[in-house]
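User: I'm writing a tutorial on reading structure tokens. Could you give me a worked example: one chain, its sequence, then its tokens, then a sentence or two explaining what the tokens reveal?
Assistant: Sure. Here is the example chain.
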Amino acid sequence: MTRLAGKVAVITGGASGIGAATARRFVNEGARVVVADVQDDAGSDLARQLGAAARFRHVDVASEDAVAAVVDFAVAEFGQLDVMFNNAGIIGAVGSIARSTMDEVDRTFAVILRGAFLGTKHAARVMIPARSGVIISTTSPGGLHGGLGPHAYSAAKAGIVGLTQSVAAELRRHRIRVNAIAPGATVSAMTADLTTGNPADLNGAAAAMSTDSDVAGRPGIPEDIAAGVAYLASDDAVFVTGSTLMVDGGATYASGPSPFATDQWDASPAVLEAGRRA
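And here are its predicted structure tokens:
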């Protein structure tokens, strides 16, 4: 597939998990990528694996200078910026609202929401003159429904949805599309740490996260999310902006269990007024 041929992308949080899978997918589809991350060894290794189409840049997304610099770096190295994927994230502060540690809460907001804001700001800075571009940010089902994530994480991810919609309204006239993607539970180092206590135990995480109702017969993997990001980045999504793409196996809006999945409804007639059966 060459849907992204000739495009240049910056992927924050690009050294591992969803970011790394997206970098591989983008290069396979013809793009050139800048892997932006604080994980120097993993990021450098990935860029080497991807070859001439990739570069690594150390970036703390909470720093405006660092985010501005990686955008300028992409333009200097590859001549343009077509896609900004604001993907860097952490679980961050956890626990009861009444016992929250504000330093940890502030850091959670800084990485997730401030990072996406800065990436959006500096991508827009170079995309507006070009009158072209795509900005994508990673949100979460936890930003849309209560009880699915820690408080600071959920608040920051909800902020990304609002940011996406607001900026999409501004940048539409510049032919710039702005969307979010909401991965469901995805096997990664972070979810492995949460489920098994060992961030390297991806197989253990997959086993712990599997359910009988998984639509694919397994939990989500980074490649599932990368496929969604590639779609949003491509011209296949040319009429999509201000949207949040759910990639969660139906866990958020079709979680069930549906009463109509049981045998008792196989041949039931319609239910009409006052409970009368047709």
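What the tokens reveal: The longest strand covers residues 176-183. The mean pLDDT is 93.
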